[in-house]
């Protein structure tokens, strides 16, 4: 089961339809079991039951999640995919900050390091909507970048990924590959 984490300003906000629902529809279409929780409601039983987690993005002005520590990410040790704001939350849990970098719309993303998530791709178009990029924490490696900033990171030893762009919009194949990674790591 994948734990889908809603980072929107409040449970049930309008932003949920734009940032969480597309991930849920994709998982449903793939036949992947999931449970969705608002980030303020994620509890130990949710984490114990999850084989993986996807931290969804949220609207530009929706920044309440920044104050939340997400300490569980440093001990989770199962696959995590942080999308946009989710990448920011993942990086922050490991001490990463942000830098100003506004990108809204389509950008070309160049793969910088080999990884199963991007296997067979060197460059691909991706949809972005962010005002800040992450400063890559020391435990992570940059996997892909646009002309302006790092677009994807991976933890050096754990299956933790962050994407600044939105794969649920134009690159569903990345979410599919993430789910394949989860299948390979599940008992």
Helices and strands, with pairings:
Layout: E1 2-6, H1 15-19, H2 21-30, E2 34-38, H3 44-49, E3 52-55, H4 73-76, E4 80-83, H5 85-93, E5 98-111, E6 123-134, E7 140-145, E8 150-155, E9 160-163, H6 167-170, H7 172-185
Parallel strand pairs: 1-2, 1-3, 3-4, 4-9
Antiparallel strand pairs: 5-6, 5-7, 7-8, 8-9
**Which band does the percent of strand residues land in?**
25-35%
Main sheet makeup: 9 strands, mixed
- The outline comes out as globular
Q: What is the alpha-carbon Rg in Å?
A: 15 Å
Q: How helical, in percent, are the residues? A: 25-40%
**Contiguous helical run count:** 7
Regions with little confidence, pLDDT below 50 for 5+ residues: none
H/E series:
EHHEHEHEHEEEEEHH
Strand order of the largest sheet: 2-1-3-4-9-8-7-5-6
Q: Overall pLDDT, averaged? A: 90
Structural class: alpha/beta
How many β-strand runs?
A: 9
Distance between the termini: 12 Å
